[in-house]
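Dear colleague,

Following up on Tuesday's group meeting, I ran the structure prediction for the two-component complex that the binding team flagged. I've pasted the input sequences exactly as they went in, so you can double-check that nothing got truncated or mislabelled along the way. The structure tokens for the whole assembly follow below. Feel free to forward this to whoever is handling the docking comparison.

Inputs:
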Amino acid sequence: MRKPDVVLRLTPKPMAVEVKRLSAAYDGQPVLENVDIALPVGKWTAIIGPNGAGKSTLFRILLGVMKPLRGAVTVHGEDPARQRRLGHIAYMAQQEAVEWDFPISVQDTVLTGRFGHMRTDLWWRRLLPPRWAESHHWDVVHRCLEAVNMQDFAHRPIGALSGGQKKRVLLARALAQEARLLLLDEPLAGVDTASERLILDLLARQRAAGRTVVMVTHDMDSARRYADQVLLINRTIVGMGAPDNMLVDEMLARTAVAGWRPVARRDPPLEAFP
Amino acid sequence: MMESLETLGIGLIDALLWVLMLGVGLLPDALAEPFSYSFMQRALLTAILVGAICGLLSCFVVLKRWSLLGDAISHAVLPGVAIAYLLGWPFFIGAFIAGALTSVGIGALERHTRLKADAAMGLMFTAAFALGVVIIGKIATNTHLMHILFGNVLGVQYPALLLTLCSGLLALLAVWAFYRPLLLYTFDPMQAQALGFNTGLIHYGLILLLTLTIVASLETVGIILVVAMLITPGATAHLLTERLTTMMILSVTVGVTASVVGLYLSFRLDVASGGAIVLVAAALFLVTLLLAPRHGLLARWWRARRLRRPVTATPE
């Protein structure tokens, strides 16, 4: 008798990110305490919380840069390290975290997003300089550069870009990975309206294609408009649910988000955007 | 087995020397004259090799902001060399263990105490260096110590040359084979981590390469001045280009030029070879700093002047 089939069907579909009883600390100073999170596949989650609330720490743990004190973390039901190795986790860093003086062009920066996938290329290909990578890698790079409208800057050194352009290059690099899970650390900080619109629409398309989008943000307006769910965090989980239920004065006051003012206007639904 | 390898190595060096002399033969007699001595030929080959390895690695040192770490490791290598000498081990093993221990120690100090990186490095490497000075003072003469500290490229013998050659080839192969992980780790370690690269392995691999380079340069410029060769070529190249591969090529060129010219000058003017090499490198940097097309001081001044002209009415 073969039974595994039945067992498989009974097993619930794994979450994109599942965190259980997670605690983390810097120098004995707790930043996350007993956090439980479950983010379903294919949804767009906005993480909102004050500075030092542990938003970036959560990302650092998912990326394996930091070890938690306690707790279990899985991505798509597996060890995050394995998922990273498979190229399923893409990360868009904050602008300040990147060395913009580095001697590298825009397209070569986006190509680094393919470095994980290049591990499965033929061995002699991998000994050639990245510029001679297989053409399908370059196809993805060019597609991503066009998606963020940076194709005309492909050969520029990254140091010569403006703030919004830098953000778009970082996004293109994350997209070039074609990962199932996108982690974005403040993708909208310091960008102009046009770039913001472009970035949000692009992420909406990613979500429509079945990818999971998780973004840390301070921009409640866009969280309300685009996200499927909002996670309020301040060392512990304050609340998690639909934007309309979370982005209300009472919940935000409990999260201690500074500078929050109510937005009266209801924005058009997602479908209204091209 | 070991002996046949050694014969092979010596044969290889002799072949390289022969090729080198073919090149020198094309130079005018006045320039080629010092290289008629066989010790100068060996010195020239060593200098070229060391200039090339240091130039290659200095790109990573400069871009990763590891200048102080390079300084720390180069000093910390001293007790390793001394202890390896006591135990009869190869130099390199002791040097690497000392270098790795120091970098681990620096990391641990940084993470578990209030100390910042610079204090942690300063503390670790001076302590290690002091230990080295004490041990060497017990087991060897002062000239020995001076040779390790400041190098003596004119006295290079076959075994040291062979070591330099092997380290050079190893460093070149490693940078070639692991170019993408190294690039990614230097550029953006978080991204490397997200893509599932083993950043710990890359980190210590790079430190291993750095130690290798330092040990290879011991005889030429010595451990005090090697850090100059690990910074200056890369810094010079960084002012000249916006591409990592070009930067590596330029950096190697600067390293080799400085080594060769410095060696020649040290022979002609009868001054210390290590000092002469580093001074030539510094001079090359100075010229680049002034004249570099984009990041040079003159170019910057010119651009600022052109920008300022139409708005003379506004203050500043």
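Confidence is low (pLDDT under 50) at residues 262-274 of chain A.

Cheers,
M.
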